[in-house]
Amino acid sequence: MLQTRIHGKDRIAFIESLVVGDIAELKPNQGSLSLLTNDDGGIIDDLIVNNASDSFLYVVSNAGCAEKDSAHMQNKLQDFRGRDVALEPVDCALLALQGPSTADVLRAGLSDDLSRLTFMSGITTAVFGIAGCRVTRCGYTGEDGVEVGGPDPQQHHVRSAACGPSWPPVSPQISVPGDRAVELAERLLQSAEVKLAGLAARDSLRLEAGLCLYGNDIDETTSPVEASLVWTIGKRRRAAMDFPGASIIVPQIKGRVARKRVGLTSTGPPARQHTPILNLEGRVIGEVTSGCPSPSLRVNVAMGYVEPEFAKPGTALHLDVRKKNGGRRNLQNAIPAVQIL
């Protein structure tokens, strides 16, 4: 993942010139999922912006978009010449830890009370002896979780967020300095409860939760409204229309778009990316963008885009899954078809 610190008193004005979220309203040590948008209303990337301290923002975006995102921020920095803002790349790796025993595994390596973390809030602490790590209660698997940031040379004391109720099972992403990632992974694997897993596990979990994968479900041709991500746009930002692409995106909120992202479940062979979505009369009305079997639900899960009149939950649809033997059409019923995302 690309991890960047943004310093300076104009750091909020800078990031809000790039994203749709209301970053100014974030409390100390609070974060939010947001979107980088272009002037055409498309999504350059999805990312998490953390108000990490009084002196910087901590931004985590997709590794696959690292070069593009870095160039985009650097280019915008030219518009802020003479203002107090600076970018600092962070050399850290990410480990993801998930499952019902995660909290117990993490507690063994932390001296701080994890119950003090509310969703998207963070602390600075040591993780299994690695000092100065930033731990944020978040994740992108659909599970409750935390993200642990690598040592921060500017702050080595703990900053706790508001108290939360209890600490449920977590699925953290752990961000650590690149040269200590293997050390931390080996320490975590000392627990009998921890096993290595591939990205397929992450993919099924995020699909079950209806979470987008950049490059599959959202890209620079997709607007936040089409992607059912209007909730990422701050109310103040909507009113001000001061983010990239606002003149296109804001009217779409109360208007009409050509397509809407939906969730699907089905049985039989799983629908994969580019599988056509048909109405009951056999007309193609959309396309699957992600799909896989769901080990938890024991059905197939998918998401894709359909014409807006077919986006109502419970709408009956077909998926045109083609078998390998001769490419025969296998029309599946999507059950119960469209889900709310």
Report on this model:
With 341 residues, the protein is of the alpha+beta class. It has 7 helices and 16 strands. It has a 6-stranded antiparallel sheet with strand order 11-14-13-12-15-16. Strands 2-3-4-1-5 form a 5-stranded antiparallel sheet. Strands 6-10-9-8-7 form a 5-stranded mixed sheet, covered by helices on one side. A hairpin with a 6-residue loop joins β15 and β16. The longest helix is centred in the N-terminal third of the chain and has 12 residues, at 66-77. The radius of gyration is 21 Å and the shape is globular. The model is unreliable at 152-171 and 324-341 (pLDDT under 50).
Task: Set out the fold topology.
Layout: E1 2-7, H1 11-16, E2 30-37, E3 43-51, E4 56-61, H2 66-77, E5 86-90, E6 92-96, H3 102-107, E7 122-127, E8 130-136, E9 147-149, E10 173-177, H4 181-188, H5 199-208, H6 235-240, H7 246-254, E11 260-266, E12 276-278, E13 284-294, E14 299-306, E15 317-322, E16 329-334
Parallel strand pairs: 9-10
Antiparallel strand pairs: 1-4, 1-5, 2-3, 3-4, 6-10, 7-8, 8-9, 11-14, 12-13, 12-15, 13-14, 15-16
